[in-house]
Write a structure and sequence with these properties.
Largest sheet of chain A: 2 strands, antiparallel
Distance between the termini of chain B: 19 Å
Radius of gyration of chain A: 19 Å
Oligomer: heterodimer
Number of domains of chain B: 1
Strand content of chain A: under 5%
Helix content of chain B: over 70%
CATH topology of chain B: ABC transporter involved in vitamin B12 uptake, BtuC
Order of helices and strands of chain B: HHHHHHEEEHHHHEHHHH
Strand order of the largest sheet of chain B: 1-4
Largest interface: A-B, 41 and 40 residues
CATH class of chain B: Mainly Alpha
CATH architecture of chain B: Orthogonal Bundle
Order of helices and strands of chain A: HHHHEEHHHHHHH
Shape of chain A: globular
Strand content of chain B: under 5%
CATH topology of chain A: ABC transporter involved in vitamin B12 uptake, BtuC
Distance between the termini of chain A: 41 Å
CATH architecture of chain A: Orthogonal Bundle
Number of strands of chain A: 2
Helix content of chain A: over 70%
Number of helices of chain A: 11
Shape of chain B: globular
Chain lengths: 287, 328
C-alpha cells in the first residue's frame, strides 16, 4: 500500500508538468483555435532557457524562471504574429503541418546551441532534501512542484474568470464576431492569448530543469503526452486538462510500478477509448 | 457546344502530355540500373516506398479531406507482417501479400472507429491508434523483437508455382520488383480515384452534407478510403522490410507518419502526381542537405513553413498554370 501511495504521489508531481503544458495547449485551442503541435517545443525552450541562465550563467533560480518566461514569450509572440496568424482562415490541417515544422526548427536550433548537454543542474538550496511520506523520503522539490501546479491552476482560473482581460478572452472564445463588434481588438487578443499559452508551457519547462534532463527530442515526446491529456479532458477545457493530467500522470506512474511493459499502450488506449465513447472529452462541452 | 469540344480537345491534349511524362518516368525507372550504382538504386527504392506511403496519406488528405497522423502504424503492420512471413521461410510474394492483408485488416478494424470523426478529432484518434501499434511493436518482445526489432529478414526469391524462380538477393533484381509492384499499385489507385468511387471521396472532401443528400453513406465511403489507404501503407511497409532486412519500432512512430505528410504537401496534395514529385524532392533535399550540413531538420522545417505560408498547392500546384499554358 505504501508503494501505491508513494508512486501515486510521484505521478502527481509529474502530472503537474503535463498539466502546465496541456493548459497552454488548451488555451491556445480554445481561444484562437490553434492546435499547436510545437507546444512541447515551447516547453523544451523554457527548460533550455532556464538551464542556461541557472546552470551555465549561475543566475538565481527564480530570476532564471522569469528569464525563461521572457524568452519563450518572445518566441510565442513571433510565432503567432508572423506565422500562425496567416492560417486562421485555412483548414486546420495546415496549422498542424506548420506547427510540426516548428518542431523541426526548434529541435535543430536547440541541438545547434546546446548540443547534447545532458546535465541536470544541482537543486537550488531551499529545495534540497526530502520529507518522510508513508515512511519514505519524498523529495521536497516534488512537493513544491505539486504545490506550484495547483497554484498555477488558481492563477489561471483567476486570470480567466476574475480579470477584465480574461473576460475578453472568454468572450472572444465563445463569440468571436460579437466580441469584435463591441470593440475587442481580436488580433491583439489572440496574440496575447497565444503568448499566455506559451508562457504556461515555459513555466512547466523551467520548473523541470532541476529534476529532468533536457534534450532536443523532449518537445516531441511532451506534446504527444499533452495531446493525450487534452483529448481525455476535452480540447479547449481547462478543467479537463487538469483532470486529464492527473489521470494520466497517476495512471502512468502506477503502470510503471506494476505493469511497466504496457504503460504506453494503456495511455493511448485510454485516449482512443475517450475519443470513441466521448469525443468531446470528459469535461468538454458540445463539439 | 464548341466550348465543350474545346475542353474535350484540351483534356485529350493534356492527357497525352501526362502520358508522355508518365512514359518518360517509367522508361527512366527501368533503364536506371544500367548506369547507376547500388546506392542510387537504394535511394530510388526508398523514394518509391515513401511515395506509396504518401499516396496512403494523400488518398485521405487530398482526396477525402482527412489528415491522418497514424499511417505509419499501417506501414509498420505491413513491414512486420512481411518480415514475419519471410522469416518463416516463404518466397517473396506471400510476404508482400501478407503485409497488405494485415494492414487491410488493421485498417478496417481501426477505421470503423476513426471514420466517425473529422478534422482534429480524426487526426487525434489516428495518432492514438498509430501510437498503440508503436507501443505494441516496442513492448511485445516475443513477437516483434522489442526495441531491436526484427532482423535478418531474407530477400526471399520470387517464385510462383514452379513457373519461375528469380533470385532477389541483388539490389537491381529487388529494385525491379519494387518498381513493378509500385507502378501497378499506383496505376490501380489512379483508376480508383478516377472512378465513381474516387468522385465520392472528393465529394466528401468538398461537402459531406451534399454527398449524404445524394444517398451515399459518408461513413462507409470514408471507411473504404481508409482501408485502401491502409493497404497502400501496408504495401509500402511490406516492400521496406526486405529492402532494409531490419525493422525497428521507429517505423510506426508518429514522427514517421509525418514524413509522407510533408512529402505530399511538398508535391501538392490536390494533384495525382503530387506524392511522386514530393517524395523525390523530400528525399533529394534531405540527402543533399545532410551532405552539406548537419542541420537538415532546420532547412526542412523552414522549407515546410514557407510552403504552408505561400504555396499550399505544393510544387505541382505552383506549376499548374505553366503546365496548362503549354497545353494550350
Amino acid at each position: 500500500m505504501s508503494n501505491f501511495i508513494f508512486q501515486a504521489l510521484n505521478g502527481l508531481s509529474s502530472a503537474m508538468f503535463l498539466w502546465l503544458v496541456a493548459a497552454g495547449l488548451t488555451v491556445a485551442f480554445g481561444v484562437c483555435g490553434i492546435l499547436n503541435v510545437a507546444h512541447g517545443s515551447l516547453y523544451m525552450m523554457g527548460a533550455y532557457f532556464a538551464f542556461t541562465s541557472f546552470y551555465l550563467l549561475g543566475i538565481n533560480f527564480w530570476v532564471s524562471i522569469l528569464l525563461a518566461l521572457m524568452g519563450v514569450g518572445i518566441i510565442g509572440f513571433l510565432m503567432e504574429r508572423f506565422f500562425l496568424r496567416r492560417l486562421y482562415d485555412q483548414p486546420i490541417e495546415f496549422q498542424l503541418i506548420l506547427t510540426f515544422a516548428f518542431i523541426l526548427v526548434f529541435d535543430n536550433l536547440s541541438k545547434m546551441i546546446w548540443g547534447t548537454m545532458l546535465i541536470i543542474p544541482n537543486m537550488p538550496g531551499i529545495f534540497r532534501g526530502t520529507v518522510p511520506i508513508v515512511g519514505r523520503p519524498f523529495p521536497i522539490y516534488n512537493l513544491f512542484i505539486i504545490f506550484a501546479g495547483v497554484a498555477m491552476g488558481f492563477i489561471i482560473w483567476f486570470i480567466l474568470n476574475k480579470t477584465w482581460w480574461g473576460m475578453k478572452l472568454r468572450a472572444a472564445a465563445s463569440q468571436r464576431e460579437m466580441a469584435n463588434a463591441i470593440g475587442v481588438n481580436i488580433p491583439a487578443l489572440f496574440t496575447a492569448a497565444f503568448v499566455f499559452a506559451a508562457l504556461l508551457a515555459a513555466i512547466g519547462g523551467a520548473l523541470s530543469t532541476p529534476i529532468r534532463v533536457c534534450d532536443s527530442g523532449v518537445g516531441g515526446s511532451v506534446i504527444i503526452q499533452a495531446f493525450v491529456v487534452t483529448v481525455i479532458g476535452g480540447l479547449g477545457s481547462l478543467k479537463g486538462a487538469f483532470a486529464g493530467a492527473m489521470i494520466i500522470g497517476i495512471i502512468s506512474a502506477l503502470c510503471t510500478l506494476y505493469v511497466p511493459f504496457i504503460e504506453l499502450f494503456v495511455l493511448y488506449l485510454i485516449m482512443a477509448l475517450v475519443l470513441i465513447i466521448r469525443p468531446q472529452g470528459l469535461f468538454g462541452g458540445e463539439r | 457546344m464548341t466550348e465543350q469540344k474545346d475542353t474535350a480537345a484540351l483534356n485529350a491534349k493534356s492527357r497525352s502530355y501526362r502520358l508522355l511524362w508518365l512514359g518518360a518516368l517509367v522508361v527512366f525507372l527501368f533503364i536506371l540500373p544500367i548506369f547507376s550504382g547500388d546506392y542510387f538504386l537504394y535511394m530510388v527504392m526508398r523514394m518509391v516506398i515513401l511515395c506509396l506511403l504518401s499516396y496512403s496519406v494523400n488518398l485521405l488528405l487530398g482526396y477525402t479531406g482527412l489528415l491522418s497522423f497514424g499511417q505509419a502504424g499501417f506501414y509498420a503492420c505491413g513491414a512486420y507482417a512481411c518480415g514475419k512471413v519471410l522469416l518463416a521461410g516463404t518466397s517473396l510474394l506471400p510476404g508482400v501479400i501478407a503485409g497488405i492483408l494485415v494492414a487491410a485488416i488493421a485498417s478496417i478494424i481501426l477505421g470503423v472507429f476513426c471514420v466517425r470523426h473529422t478534422a482534429i478529432y480524426f487526426a487525434m484518434i489516428t495518432l492514438a491508434f498509430g501510437m498503440m501499434i508503436y507501443s505494441l511493436a516496442e513492448k511485445w518482445v516475443s513477437f516483434t523483437g522489442g526495441d531491436d526489432g526484427l532482423f535478418g529478414i531474407p530477400r526471399a526469391p520470387l517464385n510462383c508455382f514452379y513457373l519461375f524462380n528469380i533470385n532477389m538477393e541483388t539490389t537491381s533484381a529487388y529494385y525491379y520488383f519494387v518498381i513493378v509492384v509500385s507502378l501497378i499499385a499506383v496505376y490501380i489507385l489512379y483508376r480508383i480515384l478516377n472512378s465513381p468511387l474516387g468522385l465520392i471521396f472528393q465529394g466528401i472532401r468538398d461537402s459531406e452534407t451534399r454527398v449524404s443528400f445524394v444517398g451515399i453513406s459518408v461513413k462507409n465511403s470514408r471507411l473504404i478510403s481508409f482501408t485502401i489507404a491502409g493497404m497502400y501503407g501496408g504495401l509500402g511497409g511490406a516492400l521496406f522490410a526486405p529492402l532494409e532486412q531490419t525493422i525497428t519500432p521507429a517505423t510506426s512512430h508518429w514522427i514517421t507518419s509525418a514524413d509522407p505528410i510533408i512529402a505530399t504537401l511538398l508535391g501538392g496534395m490536390y494533384s495525382f502526381g503530387g506524392p511522386i514529385v514530393g517524395s523525390v524532392i523530400y528525399f533529394l533535399v534531405k540527402d543533399i542537405v545532410v551532405r552539406l550540413t548537419m542541420n537538415w531538420m532546420l532547412i526542412l522545417g523552414i522549407i515546410i513553413i514557407l510552403l504552408v505560408l505561400t504555396f499550399r498547392g505544393g510544387v505541382m500546384g505552383a506549376l499548374r498554370p505553366y503546365l496548362s499554358a503549354r497545353v494550350r
